[in-house]
Amino acid sequence: MPGTVKKDVVVGLDIGTSGIAVAVLNRSSVAIQEPLGFGFCSSMIMEKGFIGDSEAAAYNVKKALDEALTAAGVPFTTAYVNVDGPELVIRHGSVKQAITRRQVVDARDLIKLQQHLCETVLPEDVLSIIQLDNIRFYIDGEYVFKPQGCRGRELGLSSTVLAAPRRQMDLIWQCLRNAGLPPTTETVVGALAVAQGVLSGVERKLGVICVDLGAGMTKVVFINHNMLYKLSIFPAGAGNITADLAVGLHTTLEAAEKVKKEYGLGLIAGDVHVPNISGSGYNTVPGSLVHKIIKSRIEEILDFVKEFIEELDLGASLPGGIVLTGGGALLNGLTEVAQEYWLMPVRIGFNSLPGEEAPNEDAYRYTTAIGLASWGTGQVYPGMRQKAEKGFKGRIKSWFR
């Protein structure tokens, strides 16, 4: 049809602890990003980054994906999927190689060098690569933004390699294949995708810590000068608060979740009434007990982030402050408590892209998915990782194994 703009559609797929979220964006839009559709499927198939039931996971992924694509009304060509977990491995390294073929850098040189870097810094056969980050190329010792086609004698590369246990990656790839994801699908560390979705360019440049308080994990990342400096994952999140309340109040998870959302970190006068876990009658518990349970778990998470900050040895200098995001960040009173605990400015980070496409109270569910989808638009060499991965001597799982 004359005048119709062709859409370059990319999908962000967030396989989380409490559900699967999908965001479909049009990256060919004149605007920075155009949301086309969203999908969500509540599920508990993921624990600490590992998929428990691959078949159930594939079914739920397909369900959320179909919902988003139906809303978008267009097919997609590229998908980005998150990988997280406490066992995530981060290595930094640099390698060099002579430039052959008339001393002109071509795509084969770049792929070969990335392969060499991964084999050098990550020799373990028990690990599979998620992605490369902080990629910087050099020609004859000088930094070059786009080396392909440049002339020189020596090509250098420095990068951060992010990897996960092979078993974890096997399960994820199996799930994605069974759900019908295309071969062009790429993996991204979830914490970096979240940062992509909620941080401003100024914050990323000046130095900022992003804390993603999810259901089952708390992910913390420090970004400075637009580069990843440190990342850590704590195997506890907002879902643990709900579980603690259910046990402590002898009630159901549904009732515990309601109590958590209603009271948050505020002081509670009097008693709280919750349904008995047996389903008959109600339990009456002191409001002080509810407050103590919530505060205790939150302090454990805040302590983890505090140690992360202290290890950075930043002093009082963190111009971008700390950005809290994720479903757990919505806990009443958390911003004030966190700011006092960390002695740093804290704000809640969210992505405004969902707009009217998703209910306001559910918009936080799509933060990681949106970050994943937008991640691909900022890559210097789109598709480079996928091509390189197939040559990593089996350390990375491709679609054809």
Overview of the structural elements:
It is a single chain. Helix 1 crosses helix 3 and helix 6 (238-249) crosses helix 7. Helices cover 34% and strands 28% of the residues. A hairpin with a 3-residue loop joins strand 1 and strand 2 (19-26). Among the domains are: 89-165, Dna Ligase, domain 1 (2-Layer Sandwich), CATH 3.30.1490.110; 232-348, Nucleotidyltransferase, domain 5, CATH 3.30.420.40. It contains eleven helices and 18 strands. It is globular. The protein has helices at 54-72, 107-121, 166-178, 190-198, 201-206, 238-249, 253-263, 287-312, 334-342, 367-375, 384-389, and strands at residues 9-15, 19-26, 34-42, 46-47, 50-51, 78-83, 89-98, 127-139, 142-144, 154-165, 186-189, 208-213, 218-224, 227-234, 271-275, 282-286, 322-325, 346-348. It has a five-stranded mixed β-sheet. Strands 14-13-12-17-18 form a five-stranded mixed β-sheet, sandwiched between helices. A four-stranded antiparallel β-sheet has the order 7-10-8-9. With 401 residues, it is an alpha+beta fold. The two termini are 41 Å apart. InterPro entries: ATPase_NBD, Cell_div_FtsA, FtsA/MreB, SHS2_FtsA. Belongs to the FtsA/MreB family. Residues 10-198 form the SHS2 domain. Interacts with FtsZ. Cell division protein that is involved in the assembly of the Z ring. May serve as a membrane anchor for the Z ring.
